[in-house]
Amino acid sequence: MKLIVGLGNPGDSYSKTRHNLGFLVLDCLAKRHNISIDIKKKKSLIGKMRFNNKKIIILKPQTFINLSGEAVLYMASFLRIQPQNIIVVCDDANLEFGNVSVKKYGSSGGHNGVKSLIKFLKADDFPRVRVGIGRPSNTQMPLESHVLGAFSKDELKKLNPTIEIACDMIEKILSGDIDNCMDGCSDSVATSSQKELSTSL
């Protein structure tokens, strides 16, 4: 069994912000597989699907990003899912908008949601699909304001294709291990020393 976690903040006021790209990617994935993410369970919304005859749980923590690990730990413990079988989808300010990166393990990269998962799971070896949001063009703008801000007109033009690429990456991970996914992705640039693959529009 696999657990796919999208990171974001609950509530309509956050729904179309850069920090909620994890939720938006899961919405796209759910639409692809004709399922809903609407089962309320212990500070989360969950959905269920099958992929290659395997049971997949999709989870949106409703704890706000900084406490995402609390909801994920509960579900992972309840379903006895190891960190290596948890795929995390999140925004990443260290990647330019339109870039999608798959990483096998590592630090939080400054993302508070990933930091919370590492803290609660006591592990950092869970794969993650990182969706770039870039840094603010205005150097005076705090990063927090940028990540919690709405998409610009230029970003909206790239938003749907970027989300689709992220869904493709999730499905590639579900189809086999990340190393094989990297080897078989001809339109991506892989850095084997970092166990990472990147693709961009």
How many discrete domains? 1
The low-confidence runs, each spanning 5 or more residues with pLDDT under 50, are 183-196
The structure class reads alpha/beta
Number of strands: 9
Beta percentage is: 15-25%
Q: What name goes with the CATH superfamily?
A: Peptidyl-tRNA hydrolase
> What is the CATH fold-level name?
Rossmann fold
Assign the CATH architecture.
Answer: 3-Layer(aba) Sandwich
Q: Sketch the major β-sheet.
A: 9 strands, mixed
Strand order of the largest sheet: 2-3-4-1-5-7-6-9-8
From the N-terminal CA to the C-terminal CA, the straight-line distance is 31 Å
Overall outline: globular
Query: How many DSSP helices?
Result: 6
Verbal overview:
The structure is a single chain. The chain is α/β, with parallel strands linked by helices. It has one domain: 3-Layer(aba) Sandwich (Rossmann fold). The chain is about 35% helix and about 25% strand. The chain contains 6 helices and 9 strands, in the order E-H-E-E-E-H-E-E-H-E-H-H-H-E-E. A 9-stranded mixed sheet has the order 2-3-4-1-5-7-6-9-8, sandwiched between helices. A hairpin with a 4-residue loop joins strand 8 and strand 9. It is globular, with a radius of gyration of 16 Å.
Provide tags for this entry.
alpha/beta, 6 helices, 201 residues, globular, 9 strands, single chain, nine-stranded mixed beta sheet, Rossmann fold, 24% strand
SSE inventory with pairings:
Blueprint: E1 2-6, H1 21-32, E2 39-40, E3 44-51, E4 54-61, H2 68-79, E5 86-92, E6 99-103, H3 112-121, E7 128-132, H4 143-147, H5 153-175, H6 178-183, E8 189-191, E9 196-200
